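Saturday, quiet lab. Running sequence design on the structure tokens for the scaffold JK sent over.
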């Protein structure tokens, strides 16, 4: 399926997890993929080599999106490569913090909002001039923005209130950006994954974490990065041309 042949795509946080699977899916669909990473250079470079070995086009780009200058650093690099047109922008890079409400610190709270909200906000802003008719922006939100995952009241089960709030902010931005950018032909959507087996959700590797996850879901297996990546590839494609301003749950029917 070559739904993205001739298109340019940026995926932030593409070195690992959901971003990596998304970069692979977009490259398989024919796009030239800019593989952004923060600190995992080896993983990003191995993905670029993998894409090229399959006949695709990929480049690795580094920027710390938790840093105030990160978005500008990244967009300068993107501009050098794609010149004047970005068709697909996937704002996926993010961090989490699991802790009781009482134990959250101001430093952790600020780091979460800097990386998960300020980062994507200014990446989209800085790249706006490269986006145009037919471009698709996809944010990676979370189930946590609309429901409380797990059972945080239970002893030993952490909660994610500040992380969840960062994803709530992204859900708000989807609506505002979709409305503001729609007249230019730019679509803006989000996916809201449930628990996905990545480093971020490493608790799925324990029996307790796995049981807790399955107890919330209608579908009884742990979600994989490719489950999300395929939906992002759909939202990036022409097949979703009449969809904008949507936050699409990709969670195996979690917390129904
Ligand atoms: N896994 C889940 O259960 C789940 C559920 C709902 C939503 N999500 C969301 O999905 C997205 C991807 O999560 P994941 O599970 O794939 O996580 P992951 O495996 O931990 O990967 C996170 C990615 O984000 C990048 N990143 C983190 N902080 C960064 C920074 N300051 N600057 C640049 N890049 C940074 C990492 O790059 P480096 O390693 O190169 O630094 C990495 O590529 C996140 O937005 C997350 O909130 C995940």
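Result came back. Writing it out in full:
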């Amino acid at each position: 399926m070559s739904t993205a042949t001739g298109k340019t795509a940026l995926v932030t946080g593409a070195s690992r997890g959901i971003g990596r699977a998304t970069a692979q899916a977009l490259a398989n669909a024919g796009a030239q993929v800019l593989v952004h990473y923060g600190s995992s250079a080896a993983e990003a470079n191995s993905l670029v080599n993998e894409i090229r070995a399959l006949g695709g086009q990929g480049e690795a780009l580094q920027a710390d999106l938790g840093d105030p200058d990160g978005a500008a650093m990244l967009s300068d690099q993107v501009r050098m490569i794609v010149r004047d047109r970005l068709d697909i922008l996937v704002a996926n890079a993010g961090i989490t913090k699991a802790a009781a409400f009482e134990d959250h610190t101001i430093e952790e709270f600020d780091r979460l909002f800097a990386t998960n909200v300020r980062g994507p906000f200014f990446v989209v802003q800085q790249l706006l001039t490269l986006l145009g008719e037919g471009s698709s922006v996809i944010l990676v939100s979370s189930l946590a923005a609309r429901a409380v995952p797990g059972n945080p009241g239970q002893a030993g089960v952490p909660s994610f209130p500040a992380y969840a709030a960062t994803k709530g902010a992204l859900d708000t931005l989807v609506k505002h950006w979709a409305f503001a950018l729609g007249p230019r032909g730019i679509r803006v959507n989000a996916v809201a994954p449930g628990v996905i087996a990545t480093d971020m959700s490493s608790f799925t590797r324990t029996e307790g974490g796995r049981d807790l996850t399955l107890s919330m879901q209608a579908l009884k297996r742990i979600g994989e990065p490719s489950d999300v990546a395929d939906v992002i590839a759909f939202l990036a494609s022409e097949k979703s041309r009449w969809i904008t301003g949507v936050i699409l749950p990709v969670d195996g029917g979690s917390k129904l």
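Notes for JK: The chain has one domain: 8-250. The mean pLDDT is 96. Ask whether to fix the surface positions before the next round.
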